[in-house]
Amino acid sequence: MELTIADKVNANPTAADIAAALSATSFPEDWSIALDDNMENDVMIDAEYDPIGTFRVSVWENRARVHAVPNPDAATLGTMLQKFLRRDESWRDLCQWESPEEAEARVKAEASEAKEAASAAAAVAPRVPATPGLAILSAVGFAILVFGGWCAFKLATQGTGFITERFPKAEAKLAALTGGMGLVALLMTIAFYRRAREAQRWPKAVGRVIVSKVENDTDDSSDSRTKRSYRPVIEFAYSVDGTEYRSRQRQLGVQTGGSESWARTVTAKYPVGRAVEVLYDPANPGTAALENPIGMTFLAFGVSVFCLAVCIHALHVAG
What we know:
The protein is of the alpha+beta class. The protein folds into 3 domains: about 1-105, no CATH class; about 135-200 and about 300-315, no CATH class; about 205-290, no CATH class. The chain has helices at about 15-20, 75-85, 100-125, 130-160, 160-165, 170-200, 260-270, 295-315; strands spanning about 1-5, 10, 30-35, 45-50, 55-60, 65-70, 95-100, 205-220, 225-240, 245, 275-280, 285-290. The strands form 2 sheets. A 7-stranded antiparallel β-sheet has the order 2-1-3-4-5-6-7. A 5-stranded antiparallel β-sheet has the order 10-9-8-11-12. Helix 6 (about 170-200) packs antiparallel against helix 8 (about 295-315). The protein is elongated and about 95 Å long. The protein starts with a strand and ends with a helix.
């Protein structure tokens, strides 16, 4: 027998070697283990670590290959390899096996069944009316865009004179600047709120954290002082209808940074290997997040209120 662990070959492996190799709490993404009987029939078990916590196991026998279904965990793989080491043929009973052709046919059949089920469900499902609140927000957003476009056109063609014509005492430049910022922030508020509301209806999948680390972004400012912002990087893997996906979007539509202690608090919440609940977009399963924050909605709304208040003050509406 010959045991290969991450490209390191052991010509005389023991059961203890296999147990030690698979006893780790985490594995690198490219980690693999293989056990070859070096006999005339040339059977080899080859396993690659899957970031979701299982192993993709292949068996090569007389140049033919089959795969384990489903992917076994470390304990099952360890038992399989130790039985194979003892030449105990019952290792084959620990998993079901299928050839690449059988796997392809199965995936196609499952996809066809899922498509037929979705079509049948869509045919009988009642049409859900649009949420009145979201419809009103869409109308408000459109009105803001129209008004903002009109103001931008006036500024481009008449300058700040169109402001002072209506408000003679206005601080025109300040009013134009803060008014524009307020309208943009208000549009962002609507966008954040709509996104959060839509995501509340997204389905959920079980995933697993595969990367959890802190990265720092260094800003070398002109005054020679270095500013550091730390951000938590959480990558997770999940599966939807048999297709595996990965994402680094911890919070939906938001990427934040802060102090190192804050970033490490976040990564401590999502250690590598932890099972997590994943929200994913049913129309695009590759879009997913672990959290659906509403804080950005309130932040954008607060900015819009502040800017618009300054704008009104700068217009000297009261005379």
